[in-house]
Amino acid sequence: MEESLMERIGKTFPMNEVDIRTYSPLTLAYIGDGIFDVVIRTLVVEKGNTSANQLHRATSHIVKAHSQALMAQALADVLTEEEADVYRRGRNAKSHTMAKNASVTDYRSATGFEALVGYLYLTRQEERMMELISYGMKQCHFEV
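Now predict its structure.
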């Protein structure tokens, strides 16, 4: 089995073992936001070499709160009970910030989606994470 990115990072940099259940949903969303961004940026860059502006436009269309909220809605019926719980915790977390171009509902759903991505990443479930991202993108007809 291939090593996960988390395992590779752990081999290169000293990391403490932490019980993921102690992490706040906003911490999970923080790392999930970055990981989701890397996945989408990778897909965009794989389409070919182009200007940074075009790369940014192609990426931001999918990583914005409204798109993530649509993906979360599309995933609702395929999440395990544990995944749905992580999503709900993220969605219901009280954040002190708001996206400047998103409704409160979209922002909260997007935070839940990011928390789910972060949870799957930190628990080394990258295959499941990629499966859900792929499924959500297909259901929402997102193309990069």
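The two ends are 28 Å apart (CA to CA).
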